[in-house]
Write a structure and sequence with these properties.
Number of strands of chain A: 10
Structural class of chain A: mainly beta
Number of strands of chain B: 13
Helix content of chain A: under 10%
Oligomer: heterodimer
Distance between the termini of chain A: 36 Å
Strand content of chain A: over 45%
Chain lengths: ~110, ~130
């Protein structure tokens, strides 16, 4: 199974900050890395698919990058509605696996 | 609009069973693969099972293999998850999710994204 290790597990940030979340995979994978946002009590929502493609309707302050075993989600200017938990996920091979999550909290 | 609505959760004793349902609307259900994903209280996301658009193949996490069965009724636009031999560690919110952008070939499915999620249904395993 491909393990997804996110870092950090949590971070504190302020509105307007640039936020970067990293996901490392246990083996090199292709472009099948997706990123999700989840708010308390709500279902996850896809932000980025295929490493760097922005899901329709997602603000352009979200971006994804990476290759091989290292992938990154960046929020260029954190907004109040962005305080949430973020998960990476791979669909390179079964079983599909998720990172453990990164909680973005208010500083 | 695309919508997924789960139902069927509840409180069940260890060793018990439930059938979870996911009613789909707003898209051509029979042309999309579907997933079940669960989330234990205060924990992260845990993929459970996947079924191809026509029901021809199913995939399971090792933790549920032999105990859970994913199925679908394309005439009713409904996805199911039969959960049996339940354990305390199966306690979670169960989400169904629509798979997009993926492909299956030679017994391998890859490349998809969990594009749309339902609101989830809670399963509590407790005596």
């Amino acid at each position: 199974d491909i393990q997804m290790t996110q870092s950090p597990s949590s971070l504190s940030a302020s509105v307007g900050d640039r936020v970067t979340i990293t996901c490392r995979t246990s083996q090199s994978i292709s472009t099948y890395v997706n990123w999700y946002q989840q708010k308390p009590g709500k279902a996850p929502k896809v932000l980025i698919y295929g490493v760097s493609s922005l899901q329709r309707g997602v603000p352009s302050r979200f971006s994804g990058s990476g290759s091989g075993t290292d992938f990154t989600l960046t929020i260029t200017s954190l907004q109040p509605e962005d305080f949430a938990t973020y998960y990476c996920q791979q669909s390179d091979s079964t079983p599909w696996t998720f990172g453990q999550g990164t909680k973005v909290e208010t500083k | 609009q695309v919508q997924l609505v789960e139902s069927g959760g509840g409180v069940v004793q260890p060793g018990g069973s439930l059938r979870l349902s996911c009613a789909a609307s707003g898209f051509t259900f029979s042309t999309y693969g579907m997933h079940w994903v669960r989330q234990a209280p205060g924990k992260g996301l845990d993929w459970v099972a996947f079924i191809r658009h026509d029901g021809s193949d199913q995939y399971y996490a090792d933790s549920v293999k032999g105990r859970f069965t994913i199925s679908r009724d394309n005439s009713m636009n409904t996805l199911y998850l039969q959960v049996s031999s339940l354990k305390a560690e199966d306690t979670a919110v169960y989400y169904c999710a629509k798979s997009e952008r993926g492909a299956c070939s030679g017994g391998r499915c890859y490349g998809d994204v969990f594009a749309v999620w339902g609101q989830g249904t809670m399963v509590t395993v407790s005596s």
